[in-house]
Amino acid sequence: MIKNPASSFDLNSYLILKRKKVNAFINEILNNTASSSRIVQAMHYSLMAGGKRVRPILCIAASEAVGGNADDVLPAACALEMIHTYSLIHDDLPAMDNDNLRRGKPTCHKAFDEATAILAGDALLSLAFRILSSINLINKNNSSNQLKIIHKISFATGHNGMIEGQMRDIASEGTLLSLKKLEDMHSLKTGALIEASIFSGALLGGGSPKQIDQLEIYAKNIGLAFQVTDDILNIEGDPAVMGKAVGTDNARGKSTYPSIMGLDKSKEFAKKLVHNALQALDDFDSNSNSLRAIGYYIIERKK
Amino acid sequence: MIKNPASSFDLNSYLILKRKKVNAFINEILNNTASSSRIVQAMHYSLMAGGKRVRPILCIAASEAVGGNADDVLPAACALEMIHTYSLIHDDLPAMDNDNLRRGKPTCHKAFDEATAILAGDALLSLAFRILSSINLINKNNSSNQLKIIHKISFATGHNGMIEGQMRDIASEGTLLSLKKLEDMHSLKTGALIEASIFSGALLGGGSPKQIDQLEIYAKNIGLAFQVTDDILNIEGDPAVMGKAVGTDNARGKSTYPSIMGLDKSKEFAKKLVHNALQALDDFDSNSNSLRAIGYYIIERKK
User: Fold this and answer.
1) Which one, of B276, B132, B135, lies nearest residue B199 by Cα?
2) From A40, A96, A150, residue closest to B129, measured CB to CB
3) Res. A74: pLDDT tops 90
4) Contact of A50 with A85, CB cutoff 8 Å
5) How would DSSP label each residue in B129-162?
6) Residue B107 near residue B92, CB atoms below 8 Å
7) A4 is a domain residue
8) Cα–Cα dist B85/A126, whole Å
9) Percent of chain B whose predicted confidence (pLDDT) is above 70
10) Which positions 233-292 of A are in contact with B (Cβ < 8 Å)?
11) Model pLDDT for residues A30-50, shown as the tens digit of each residue
12) What CA–CA distance (Å, rounded) separates A182 from B200?
């Protein structure tokens, strides 16, 4: 078992505080628009449907780890959540996963309609880039860094990242992937945006190139660990705690870590990944305790 | 009848030359990716389905009008075409206009499938922002201007622009809009991106604030004139020349300029708009002859 190197860190309070900040900022952005319009209602509905805010929190924690602060990266953090939400709205569509429920609530196309859901996703992606290109994004107003994060994020969300991952996910349903192909698929579908989240926080927070390199190693490992643990919870989780059904991966014939390497080896693998992630933080001071605690939490979480 | 103030300008050769440049650059971008993937094939298919390249050409012409050159703005121009193509792919989807053909070829979801079409659109939007944020976008490497065009374009494509326009277009089918509401709808759906195209070209080309203001007046007027003429052609056009059916607006119960103000008044209105557009170019030298010729062409075109 991995020892929690930041056991005195109160992760729960940290997560609550950061989620509150993120939610307040998202509400502010949407209230500044013509909120009576149906499209903004749909965007708001999906953004406020109870997401864990993993990407914005990782962005903020990465900024803090290099000595930056949360407020400076909050717009970028929220833009990342908008991109994540857009991807979920589109993934849930009838032509893709055809899901009626997400986090216990009707999916966007069920609560509104299919055209509105497609357009709400589209609008969230544009809104994310609008926020990322705002001149008020960072106090230091370093345009060159702003362009770098837009470039990184647009790469991560596109046909060399998230979109290709989703294409492979759809194509692979019902076939058993090799471990390499499964890892590539997750790395594209979810890993790239998690890495971009941490990169953005670290760059805007003023991290050195070496610090950013180390944080990217952290990101790669916890992104994958998060996925492996998701697969494990889909077998062993408690539906009452998780708020969603278990056993669905198996029923859908999806390739997962447990289906390829077995349950015990998957657990070992998740621990090894978190170990690697924490090791990448060795040269960081106590400002990175949130990232350490998040790494530890990933394999201990029950939902 | 408006006198063509740039009658000696060979618009046809100009359009052929610029289209060639745009097509070559788009091909280069897509060939630099893993082109064997299905998603890139779908993106390529729709990008190369015979578009007129109106937005990239306006971007290039605006740059030239302020003394810039085509090659410096070519990446931005092509990014604008990717955004336009993404919007067409999504508009054609079964949940929206449910069109099987575009420019005589099967629409993306017919040639591939619905999931691929949704994702190809998504990927084109991300690719556009990836190109716009590339450090090689402009020779002068003025990050601040790059951010400004990303901001303008992401505003134009989002819930205060194109997306809201499409929402209103869907909602209005079968009802007769007021002239004001019809204008607002087109201004959002197509006007905003045309204005952003001209703004981007003018800013990257080194235009002064006053020049950019004048070009924005030009853009607003020709954007609307283009739409009014489209509505007129849908009644009077020759299907053989246009390569698409006429009378479809009426059959679908769509509000159009002729349906609201009559055919003759619509023609007068289009001429007045082009007159206003050309007037906005009064202080520009002969480098703006392409913009003048394009304005003139808009009301004379047969397809």
Assistant:
1) B132
2) A150
3) yes
4) no
5) HHHHT-TTS-TT--HHHHHHHHHHHHHHHSTTTH
6) yes
7) no
8) 15
9) 95
10) none
11) 887 655 799 999 999 999 998
12) 41
- Intra-chain end-to-end CA distance of chain A, in Å: 19
Domain of residue A226: give its range.
11-300
Residue at B6 is within a domain = no
Closest-CA residue of chain A to B119: A163
Sign of CA dihedral B243, B246, B251, B257: positive
Of chain A residues 122-181, which have a CB less than 8 A from chain B?
122-123, 125-127, 129-130, 132-135, 143-144, 146-148, 150-151, 154-155, 157-161, 163-164, 166-167, 170-171
Number of domains in chain A: 1
Please report, as a single letter, which amino acid is at residue A157. Answer: T
Beta strands A101-102 and A105-106 are: antiparallel
Q: How many CB atoms lie within 10 A of CB A179?
A: 12
| Nearest residue in chain A measured CA to CA from B89 | A118
Residue among B112, B116, B159, B193 with most chain A CBs within 10 A, to mutate: B159
**pLDDT single digits (tens) B158-208:** 999 999 999 999 999 888 999 999 999 999 999 999 999 999 999 999 999
In A38-185, the DSSP E strands lie at 101-102, 105-106
Q: Is residue A3 part of a domain?
A: no
List of chain B residues whose C-beta atoms are within 8 Å of the C-beta of residue A118: 90, 93, 95-96, 118
Rounded Cα–Cα distance for residues A215 and A200 (Å): 11
The structure tokens listed for A186 are 């997750």
The pLDDT value given to residue A270: 96
The answer to the question of residue B95 being in a domain is yes
Q: CA dihedral in degrees (B177, B181, B182, B184; nearest 10)? A: -160
pTM of the model as a whole: 0.95
- Integer angstrom CA distances of residue B41 from A160, B27, B108, B117: 13, 11, 10, 11
CATH number of the CATH domain containing B253:
1.10.600.10
Residues B272-296: pLDDT tens digits?
A: 999 999 999 999 999 999 999 999 9
Judge contact between A128 and B159, C-beta under 8 A. Answer: no
Average confidence (pLDDT) over B29-54: 88
pLDDT over 90 percentage in chain A:
80
Residues near B281 by beta carbon (within 8 Å), at least 6 away in sequence: B65, B214, B218, B288, B291, B292, B295
Each residue's pLDDT tens digit, A97-139: 999 988 889 999 999 999 999 999 999 999 999 999 997 665 5
- pLDDT top residue among B240 and B266: B266
